[in-house]
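Allow me, if you will, to draw on your knowledge of protein folds for a short while. The matter concerns a single protein, recorded as an amino acid sequence and a row of backbone structure tokens. Could you please explain, in whatever detail you think fit, how the structure tokens follow from the sequence? I remain grateful for any guidance, and I place the record below:

…
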Amino acid sequence: MYRIILLLFLEFSTTSCDLTIPSNFNISIPCIPDKTPQLSDSEIIWRFRPHKQDPDSEVEIKWKGNILHITNANGSNEGVYTCVNEEWNEEARVRSGRTFTLRVDEPIPVQEWKAMIIVAGYDVMLPCKTKSSSSVPNETPPVVWKREITGGMMPLYPSDMDEEHQQKDDMKHRVFWDTSPKEQDWGIKILKVSKEDAGMYYCTVKKSTETLMVELVVKDPPLPRCFGFTGPWEPCIDPDSRSWRSILQESLLHFSTSVYSQLKGSNPKTNLIFSPFSIASTLSNLLLGARGETRTKLENALKLPNEFSCVHSEMKRLKQVTKNSLSMASTIYYSPEETLGEAFINQSLEFYDAVPQMLTNDSNQNMKLVNKWVAEKTNGKITHLVDEVDPSSLFVLLNAVYFNSKWKMVFEPMNKQVQFTKFSGEEKNVAALYSSKYKLAMSYNTKLKAQVGRLPLTDKNSLYILLPPTSTEESFSLMEKNMNHTNLSEMVFEMSKMTLQTAEVTLPKIKLAVTTLLPKLLRNLGLSDLFNDPNLCALSTGDSAISDARHRAFLALTEKGVEGAAATSISLSRSFPSFTALQPFVLIVWSDEVGAPLFMGRIIDPIETNQRK
């Protein structure tokens, strides 16, 4: 009798489950659902069918118990995972299974490329430094270059560099290998790049997926340095308007106090004399040739409104009304290697009666040339301005000024000396100007903290003397600090309305000649560019940096006057108030015609007469 044992296999599987995970993610997949009892003799097997078959890269799967573990998932883990669970159940073999489809989201690759920026007309090298390429020297480079064009990719066929190829201009003969096999760089060189060469270039390694990208950006060549800046100064609109003179007068006063503020601090215990009107005239002459940002900076330094086209015609008018008071020598010396703009030369002559002078290649000859010119222009009052002029100088600004107005009244002869009190309290014997009956305006100015005297001069000029309350340096510095353009303007207005009164006046005799080296001053006024790379393109299209700039002022206060002695005969029958300037004081020579100072300065020590600032 045979017993037949029937082995019954009951088999079922659950529905497929789709799983999507990010790249490099860890995941655990259970074969048996949670809360499902598992027999002790059950056997679990996992199988994997990858989406991409790669015989050279077999993926090993690992599981523990009924759970499959995948770590650092990537594209090779994508596929179908099937688990089979076999177990006995009351004499029957039960087989169950689950299927999982796994997808791995690879991050979108970040494509990097180099951007090469080149100016049209120059050569450029496009690098291709690879990781996977290799080549034996003198063999064909293991890369392919392509250029992206409308509608697709255009292969490039670089040539080996030789003279014959370099003589041709077409693209085929402008692209050359520029390789460095030891550094794995398979770059190319493109000669004489044009705007049409701009775009994306691709270097692909043969037998590899590695591709390097290079973006070529081609910029237009810069315009010539002086493009659009060489024309003449624009004409003045409505040249007969009286508004322009008021604008220039206010600017000149503001400029004058600005220059004084800069110069007074350079050496606070020395004499100072300068002509702000003369310096402004020199800078406005230079302004004729300035364009762009340099023009704006010069206008700002001169306290002019921007784009004030009438400055030159108004400066010409003001210079004409001061020709009897001021002997001015002002011009621009330039290197023989420079070519000046014709428009600048013509307008310089028109507005400033000055023609730029050419230097020589000899320093000693240049010195004689300049000093002779200065002596001629100042009627021999200033005979020396420079010790040398470097032949390598490109442009030199020179300005000398002599004041030749006179007293409205003469001072009386006085042989004896008087005591001048210095900051330290030391008293010095100095020659003096004295009048027992001099007509002047005087008043104490509360804003300036100074006693002010106005002494009339010829040609509608006045000499203002500002005396601090004491002879101390602190009192003097406070007065100087208060000398802004607003306070000075108010002072002049108030003093001009006052009736002249007779007073006893004592002043030290003064004969001042001071040379001011202007580079430091101009830099402090915001004009550093003048000495570096200014836009003086209307003056010269070449290198136009200023090499040197200097100003020399001469002023003498002596007893000479224009009215006869009889008009000022001495009378002791009555006493008069006195105005005595026998301590450090500020002087201002004011022109009513100009409406601004012709000279400004200070007398700290009347004995020191010839100085350099």
Notes: Residues 1-13, 561-574 have pLDDT under 50 and may be disordered.
